Every structure is written in C-alpha cells, then in structure tokens.
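Usage example:
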Amino acid sequence: MATGTNTRDRLLAAAADLFYREGVTATGVERLCTAAGVSKRSMYQLFPTKDVLVAESLAAAGPDTNRMFLPDDAETRPRERILHVFRVQEEVATEPDFAGCRFVNTATDLRDPTHPAAAVARDFKQQLTDWFAAEARAGGAKDPALLAKQLTVVFDGAAARAVVTDPDLDGLSVTTATTLLDAAGVA
Amino acid sequence: MATGTNTRDRLLAAAADLFYREGVTATGVERLCTAAGVSKRSMYQLFPTKDVLVAESLAAAGPDTNRMFLPDDAETRPRERILHVFRVQEEVATEPDFAGCRFVNTATDLRDPTHPAAAVARDFKQQLTDWFAAEARAGGAKDPALLAKQLTVVFDGAAARAVVTDPDLDGLSVTTATTLLDAAGVA
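Running the assembly step on the lines above writes:
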C-alpha cells in the first residue's frame, strides 16, 4: 500500500523537517514528495491540500518541540523548573540547524491567522504559557498568568535574537527570566 | 529612462512592501516587477540579483522601521523614552497589516546568516539595542548593555506574540519592559 501509515508518517516527518529548515511557503509539494519518497498522487490521497499537511505536520511535531524544553520530575522546585526551559533554549539555539521557534515561524510565514496551522501554532504556544503559569502558581508568583505571558515573550524574543543577532545567547535568556521570576516573587 | 531613480525607488518600495507582507522567499521577481511596474530587464540592470534587492530594500526601509518607535525630543526622561517604544509597539501590533518585526522576519525567512540582508537585519536590530543602551545609561541603569539586550528580547518576543497569539498585547509589552526597568534601577 503506497498510502498506508508509513507513507503518512514519512510525509509528516519530511514536512516538519523541511518546513522548519526551509520555510512553509518556500517548500513546494514537489520538493516535499521527493524528500519523503512519495508520489504526489499518494500525498493528495492522504492530505487533500498542502494547507492540511502544514497543519497536521505541525500538530505532529508540536508535542516534542515543547517537551524538549521541559525538566523531568526529578526537579521539583518551580523556579528551577522554569529556568530549566531557558537553559535548554540557550543550548538549542547554538545547534547548527536552529532556525527559531517552529510555531512562531509557521504563523509568521503563513501571515494568515485563519489558516488551520496558525491555530495549531497558537495552541502549542499556549501550552507552554499554561505550563509556565502552573509552575508560577506553584512557586507563589504574585500574578502567575502575567508572569507566564512574560516568560513566553522572553522565550520567543530570545529565539529571535539567536536567529538575527547571535546564536550564543550568553546567558541572556536565563538572566532575563530570572529577573522576571524575582520581580514576581518566585524564590 | 526606464532605469532612472524613479524605477529604483519604485522597486525598493515594492520590494519592502511585498517582502514584509508576503515574505522574502515567497515573493518572486516576476510578482515584484509587476507590483513596481518595472520590466525584469530594468530590474536586473539596477539589482544584479534578487539577493541584492532584498538587502538594499531592507536597508532602505530600515531607518523608518526603527524610527517609528522612538519618542521625539520633547520627552527627555530616559525611562519614559524607553517605555514609549513599547507603547508604540502595542499600537502598531494591532494594525491590520502587522506581520511582526521586519528584521526578524527577513533573517528567519532567509535562514542564512551569511546572506547580505541578514547583516542588514542584524545592524538595524543592533541600532535599536544601542538606542536602548544609551537611554539605559542616561537613566542610571546598573548594567545598561544587559538591560538593552533584555529590552530588545521583550520587543521581539512581544511582536511574536502579536503574530502567533493575539494582536492585542493588552499592556504586556509595556508591563514587561517596566519590570526590567525597575529591576535595573531606571526610575
């Protein structure tokens, strides 16, 4: 079967990879099918349009994208759990294929908040903000919801800096998160 | 003359507009020449490659892009001058054609730090950071260079939030900058 699960998984993986490395709009269906080793006919049997594939590949890649920043359960202190995210970000930003945040890039690239993939991007970004909020609450933050949004802003702004200015964030991500944690009373 | 100053200006303006609204990679030379009302032959007489046009159009649009956020000389208090930038950002983010930061988007879209336009993006972003640093110094910040980088991170992170999550920043940009100013001792 050319349209079985493997074909679907190969397409989703190739799409997530190419959309991240080369851009959503920049990656044509032709290039994508070649990379996945799948015919265009098979692709369109599984995904009626490129837009659907963009949304589904982002939905498939999203959980791992967020999860890689999160601490394991061994770390229980909310402040340290939050700072862990920014420490990982500083490492990830220096990787040769780092190209910024997958969700921000997709939403920006599409420039259409009504696109199905824009909703997926928003949901995953919200998941990170919700995670920050839960930790902030556990850490006794004055205003956990505000702190969570501020931390998300720092996360995305630091990613932008890594792309535009310097992949070596040199502690900026962690330092800025620390300042916000201190101000919010998360000791 | 089809290759005079007007042709050049029309191409630079159309390029800056389309690259911002639709993306650098997504905008082909054909589309660009049609928008500018210029033949491809004329374009290539003025700009040997699309890459050169991308860099020159960003260099031409850059000063106004940064300047629109800055206060006029009537405001002399460093803290207020810095917060002005974030107040303007909150307004700009709600404009229908807002698509994030022009410099960040170009660098991300190109995914090539050696591209001539990536250097232009870096320079203009650095100009904003340098402006923040000068104001932070005037305002008595403990570490003006660090605060300037932190403020730039907030600026770019808030722009990302406006694109991904909600164009209404609802004070987040100003509130976060305020927290950092307070922590840095800029009263």
